[in-house]
Structure formats: structure tokens, C-alpha cells
Amino acid sequence: MNKTLTRKLDTVFSQFIRLRDANKDGYFMCISCGKLVHWTEGDCGHFVNRQHMSLRYSEKNCNGQCRSCNRFDEGNNIGYMRGLMKKYGANVIDDLYVKKHHTAKFTDFEAKAMIEHYQREVKRLKEEKCTLLSKTV
Q1: Residue 80 in contact with residue 60, Cβ under 8 Å?
Q2: Which of 69, 73, 98, 102 would bridge 32 by S-S if both were Cys, CB 3.0 to 4.6 A apart?
Q3: What's residue 131's pLDDT?
């Protein structure tokens, strides 16, 4: 997958994750620390680093995270781990660590299909959750 498609997919996937985790008012709780964050002001945090392509676009590996935890606290992994287990169950950590070692390469065709899918999802979620908000992007 070329760099332009990677950037485009990263952007739309990040929007999807943050909107997915947001409540009807557009706010989500940081998976790591519980801080309430508006979806436009948070990050899409990866439990397993996004350099592992097999999990880069995994919806379980990626969750809404405050910028402080994601950028300045090295992901707050202990808090993230607790949040993941609460959200998905105790086995999720082992599952992610196993998948971390899988190899994944996306073709341009696959990337374009994923971009289209997540663009539709972002549009749907914005309509569902953010129709009354002035803080939409």
C-alpha cells in the first residue's frame, strides 16, 4: 500500500474509532485513564504499536484515548490493558499479542476498499452522534 493511501486510511480509521467510542454528545472516555474527551480533541490509541500492520487497523487494538496518555505517557499501557479487559474481556490481551506476530500487507485495492468503508461509517456516526454539535470536523 502506498504512503498516500496509508495516510488517508490512518486518518479516516482514526476518526471512526474516536466516533465509535463517543457518546451521543461526541465525548468518549479515554480507554487508559477515563478522562472525558471530545472526539475531535482525542487520539486513536493503539494498544499494540501501529508499526505491527496486522493490528494497525484492528478495531479491538484501537480505542479512543486522550492525547496526554497516548502521546506523553507512552500510551499508559497499564491503564490501557485494564480498559481493554473491561471492554472486551480478559482474553483480549493474549489475542492481540498473538496477532501481533502475524504478517499483514495490504494492497492498494484493499486499502481503497477499507477507506471507502470507514468513510461511510464516519458519515453514519457523525449523523447519529453529532447532529446537534457545533464541534464537528
Answers
A1: no
A2: 69
A3: 59
With beta carbons less than 8 A apart as the criterion, state whether 88 and 52 touch: no
Q: Let me know: does 110 contact 4? Beta carbons within 8 Å.
A: no
> pTM for the complete prediction?
0.92
What ranges do the domains of the chain cover? 7-118
What pairs with residue 109 in β-bridges?
A: none
* Residue 129, pLDDT score: 85
Q: What is the pLDDT of residue 36?
A: 98
Half-sphere exposure of 24 (CA within 13 A, CB side): 1
Q: For residue 20, give the C-alpha cell.
A: 465509535
Write out the three cell numbers for 83: 480498559
Mapped onto helix, strand or coil, the DSSP state of residue 38 is: strand
| Residues of the chain predicted below pLDDT 50 | 133-134, 136-137
Spell 52-65 as b/e; 16+ CB within 10 A means b: bebbbbbeebbbbb
Please name the residue that has the C-alpha cell 452522534. Answer: 129
